[in-house]
Design a protein that fits this description.
Layout: H1 3-9, H2 24-34, E1 46-51, H3 54-63, H4 68-71, E2 75-81, H5 86-104, H6 107-129, H7 135-147, H8 159-183, E3 187-188, H9 196-202, E4 210-218, H10 235-238
Antiparallel strand pairs: 1-2, 2-4, 3-4
Helix pairs in contact: 1-8, 2-8, 3-9, 5-6
Length: about 240
């Protein structure tokens, strides 16, 4: 289906048909498409866990407060934030950008562009994403306020702000995944009601990893799958052309 049809088809499905399995390879492909989502500074501080084992799915469903969406799902996908991997991802992007510049930039501009990226990913990104009990975030905020007296600057640089940035990027990947699933004729339900500590323990994640969203997947159980019509605030209340 085209994009508009996919967006109209996608609903938060609360009950899946247990008698209709889905192809895990197609789900994996949708997760691969999710990596095409935009990510702040291309840092890609995310991981995706496709859960297909019935025993683990049952445990995750308990940690999701026993919601019908997880109890009836054919598979469950967990979107995880990995801010703790900021140094590794920054090095990856920097290595990529060095080659990218050499392949696609005019020769006379390559040295400067590579130096710019080395400063950005080698110094600035590690400084922005580092955490130390809120101290580094406070320092970044004070610096931003001082610089902001003289020129425009990004001011949301506290440790809380950077955590929000990581979660926003991961949520874009989750949305891309759900649209891709809709194009396959598969259904999803994004959940934020879960015990994150238990989920992290089940997936053996490090302490500094975060659970962004849990998405049960399957095929909707007829009319029971969705809760009636879709309600949206009138467009003229949220749209502003200036």
């Amino acid at each position: 289906m085209d994009l508009e049809n996919a967006l109209n088809y996608r609903r938060a499905v609360r009950v899946f048909d247990k008698n209709k399995p889905i192809d895990p390879e197609r789900v994996e492909h949708c997760l691969e498409l999710a990596t095409l989502a935009p990510s702040s500074s291309n840092m890609q501080l995310w991981e995706f866990y496709q859960i297909t084992q019935p025993e683990l799915m049952a445990e995750i469903s308990k940690a999701c407060l026993g919601q019908t969406a997880t109890e009836t799902a054919a598979e469950i996908v967990v979107f995880v934030t990995r801010q703790d991997l900021y140094r590794k991802r920054a090095r990856f992007v920097l290595d990529f950008e060095r080659g990218n510049v050499r392949r696609n930039s005019p020769k006379e501009r390559q040295d400067k562009r590579i130096k710019d990226r080395e400063l950005y990913y080698g110094k600035l990104m590690p400084f922005l994403y580092a955490r130390c009990f809120g101290i580094l975030g406070m320092l970044r905020t004070l610096l931003a306020q001082a610089i902001g007296l003289f020129r425009p600057i990004v001011r949301e640089v506290s440790e809380c702000d950077m955590r929000a940035t990581v979660h926003k990027s991961c949520a874009l990947a989750a949305q891309t995944f759900m649209i891709a699933m809709a194009c396959e004729g598969y259904d999803t339900c994004p959940l934020e009601g879960f015990d994150s500590r238990r989920i992290k323990k089940l997936l053996r994640l490090p302490r500094r990893a975060g659970i962004n969203m849990i998405i049960p997947c399957g095929i909707r159980d007829g009319e029971k799958g969705i809760w009636g019509e879709r309600g949206r605030v009138p467009f003229d209340e949220v749209y502003h052309r200036i």
